Amino acid sequence: MNHFQPEIINLTELPGTACPCGTARRAFQDQSNFPATVHLTDIQSDAKSHYHNKLTEVYVILSCDSDAEIELDGTCYPVKPLTAVFIPPGVKHRAVGKMQVLIICNPKFDPTDENF
Question: Within a domain: residue 98?
């Protein structure tokens, strides 16, 4: 039986990485026993539309502007805090408006799988 150690990470203390949406703080990339990554992402109003060939993402909106939306394949949907959005591979997406989201990315995030 494999015994893995639990890990506690304060997402706000991770270094920020520029991404098409704004700034992402990515956790659990090095956990071999966990198939995904978890990102705390601060999305700016100028987020770029993109898609992934292999990655599935779940966005959980933590906070957002009152008029925030998620654009999926060209259609915009209003969102509010604690909205969850499932984004399968191939769906072109972007957040519209400032927001902070928790993103679960499966398999682990791969920066070469960001397509515009």
Answer: yes
